[in-house]
Amino acid sequence: MNSQKTLDTKGLACPMPIVKTKKAMKDMESGEVLEVQATDKGAQSDLAAWAKSGGHELMKSEETDGVFYFWIKKA
Amino acid sequence: MALKQKQASEVATKIINQQELFILDVRNEDAYGDWKIEGASVTSMNVPYFDLIDGVEDILPKLPKDKEILVVCAKEGSSIFVGEELVEAGVENVSYLSGGMKAWSEYLEPVKVGDLPGGALYQFVRLGKGCLSYLIESNGEAAVVDANRMIENYTTFAENKGLTMKATFDTHLHADHISGGKALADSVNGTYYLPEEDAGEVTFDYTALKEGSTVTIGEVTIEPIYSPGHTIGSTSLMINDAYLLTGDILFVESIGRPDLAGKAEDWVQDLRTTLYDRYKEMAGELVVLPAHFSKMAELDEKGRVSAKLHDLYQKNDGLNVEKEEEFRKMVTENLPPQPNAYQEIRETNMGKIAPDEETKREMEIGPNRCAVN
């Protein structure tokens, strides 16, 4: 999936994946897609809940070899 | 004032003693809606931590003044983050739950149920998950019934009292939590008892728990009573003709569900017979001790969960359904959701899969949901 920016939060524990995602999103334009990589299991449901509460669209998420990938489109 | 750390044991003491506690739960809304810390003296408020990353000013007016505020999250990272923000904002008396909901899920509070010849019977209350397990002590010997995965709770307890662990029992193959029965028995070279009818797919050695084969611990007799319905093998344990450990067949406010092995229709009649014939013939004075509770209100002032059998025949709705058809509907239709990861938990308890500790923790997150309502 195409993204304008990639954020690596692998190895970081809650709440850092979301703190960093939020910061990265601030510098992006509406409609752009951010790819987030995380290893914290809690990030799965928290990123989805955060995106929803901010109106962003979680376009896709998948897990490969213990790494979670998320693609979030900025509102 | 700095952010303080609170252990799950301190929170448990507050809840059992019904001391006021204000909780700011910063997990996401779904996680909070599914499962949270409860109690008669607990007030809780849910604001996800990701809404508090830029500051806590918005929620300050909603927080109680002059009361301790306990911040809770899944593990503890986010509660420390939010707790520190609160401290910086000038809020006094803020603490966080060490280990978060994971630690809460794993905490066991041992309480004495009553005396036995040469010893006593203890209930281990898993407040965060509603699981109840038991330790029988007599003349320096001990046995554990429906042990949880965190077996060091029982070994430490036994060591402190100088007891030798002889045996562990599972009243049935559990679907809501990972059993510590086999691991605990192996760690003390004791015998692990499991009902044979539930052990068809079990991959390790066990001793069949059978009606007629009484086990003696010190001076205390443990008499197995076949009482199927939650599972086909479900076996109750009568302790010294005084206590009836009912497993997941009969609870204080509810009855067991027959569907967690996918055979609800087949097992309804067994459940009916156990509850409406078998138990009914037993002495009403027996103290019923189940393997679960579902509401904190079931705990008495010492934190115990128990009831006299004849009282349950008066008060428990599940024991007062006259028509068989109505009973069938009650236990097969409109059941609550199944426990989290219940299939994987059953397979783990059979020894078919061996997840790592972290995965086991994740599998057990959430309420037990072994009752019909």
Structure description:
The complex is a heterodimer of chains A (75) and B (373). Helices cover 31% and strands 35% of the residues of chain A. In chain A, strand 3 (57-64) and strand 4 (67-73) form a beta hairpin. Chain A starts with a strand and ends with a strand. Chain A is α+β, with helices and mostly antiparallel strands and 75 residues long. Chain A is built from two helices and four strands; from the N terminus they run βαβαββ. Chain A has a single domain (5-73), classed as 2-Layer Sandwich (Translation Initiation Factor IF3), CATH 3.30.110. Chain B is an alpha/beta fold and 373 residues long. Chain B folds into two domains: 4-103, Oxidized Rhodanese, domain 1 (3-Layer(aba) Sandwich); 108-364, Ribonuclease Z/Hydroxyacylglutathione hydrolase-like (Metallo-beta-lactamase, Chain A, 4-Layer Sandwich). Chain B is 26% helix and 24% strand. Chain B has eleven helices and 18 strands. Chain B has helices spanning 8-16, 29-34, 77-88, 100-106, 152-160, 181-187, 264-278, 309-315, 324-332, 342-349, 357-364, and strands at residues 4-6, 21-25, 42-46, 69-72, 94-97, 109-116, 119-126, 131-138, 141-145, 164-169, 191-194, 207-208, 215-217, 220-226, 235-239, 243-247, 287-290, 307-308. In chain B, helix 7 (264-278) crosses helix 9. The longest helix of chain B is centred in the C-terminal third of the chain and has 15 residues, at 264-278. The radius of gyration of chain B is 21 Å and the shape is globular. Chain B starts with a strand and ends in a 9-residue tail after the last helix. Classes of the chains: A alpha+beta (75), B alpha/beta (373). Chains A and B meet through helix 1 and helix 2 of A and helix 2 and helix 3 of B.
